[in-house]
Structures are given as C-alpha cells and as structure tokens.
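How a chain folds remains the central question behind the approach discussed here. This step matters because it turns folding into a mapping between discrete strings. The sequence in question and its structure tokens are set out directly beneath this paragraph.
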Amino acid sequence: MNGENADQGEIGKFDRDASAWWDPEGPFAPLHAITPLRLDHIESRIGSLAGLSVVDVGCGGGLLSEPMAARGARVTGIDLAPETLETARLHAHGTGLSIDYREIAAEALAAEAAGRFDVVTCMELLEHVPDPAAVVEACSTLVRPGGAVFFSTINRNARAWLLAVVGAERVLRLLPAGTHDARAFIRPAELARWARRSGLEMNNLTGLHYNPLTRHYFLTDDTRVNYLAHCTRTNP
C-alpha cells in the first residue's frame, strides 16, 4: 500500500464510523442522499455505465461503487481506510454484487493500471488529501484516452465555508463536526489547471446544493459551494 499522499487523521476519521456507512440516517446520510444525483449525472454525461470498466477512487464504504455495479459497470473501488473497505466488501457480498475493493492509493494503482479504465470517479476525496493535484494526475493516468473522469469537491470561498462547514456541520448537523477543513477546499480554476496539466479537458461543471427547508439536494449551475466536474482524457 502506498499511503504517502494521505492524511492518517482523515483516514481515522472515516474509519471510526466504518460500521455506519450504510445507515441512511447516520453520519454519511448526505452521501446517501446525493448518490442518485451523482449517478444520474454521470450517465447523463457519458451514457449508460453498462459494460464499462470503472474505478472509484476514494470509494469509502461503496455508496457509489455499488449502484454503478448494479447498472452493469465492472467496478474497482480503492481507498486507504481498511475498516471502511471491509464494510464495503461485506455489504457488496450481501447484495451479490461483484466489486473489486482494494486498499491502495490512486498513485500506486496508476503505476500498475495506466489507461485501464473507461471511467474514473473521485468523489469527495480531493479536499481530504495533502496533495490533490497528484490525485488528479493519477486519475488521468488511470483512464483510457477519450475516457471520462468525474470529480466532486467543494469550492473555496466565504460562502462555501458558511454553508459547508458552519451550516452543514455546526447548525444543521448534516455531517459530524470537523468533517471538513475549509482551507483544503478547491476552487474550480485550480482543479481545471491541475486537470489540464495532467492531460484532462474539463467539459462541464455542475453545482450541487441543499435546501434546508425541503431537505432535498439538487443539481444547479451555481458552483459556488459543492460542485461536480466532468473531464475527458485528451492525450494518448
């Protein structure tokens, strides 16, 4: 396992709640709520996942890996949190889905599986690693030329700090306090620069928002807080 580009405190934070990953009312409830949106967004951009080879970078407990597999994709899920991965394996076994879960860093997998995947997903990971640009580069290496890479992260500005940290963690208690460090949030221009440097072309940015009155998440053109980026590998 190559864990150089990893924060052990972040890994421990998610492993502490490993048994609760699949509790829709637990600490990962927001991820349960947004997974259908993320999944439909991916297929709206590239078409059906059926038959495609996908690697889910920073897969956590498998909340996105499983529904992608259920839609016919051949899914590899990677993460550096061992307890979380065990939860993912057990849940997939219980649902009868075949997913290859591995405890390996994106950079290490890229060294052994360059260009092997049609689609790479990297959701809510970049803001939790010391060197997000290195993860972007690894994701580009993993995808085949012409393949798609999807990132989901949080913009860095006062509004994002107010809504994603103060609002989501301290007021609404949607997430455990301390889930995010606003200093690690990533502006779209930064992500676009890392993508270009790694041979990726950014095709689309889509915002993801939460309405506290209706308690629903929705996609929007407003990328000032949470956003998803769809990129394509352009270089051979």
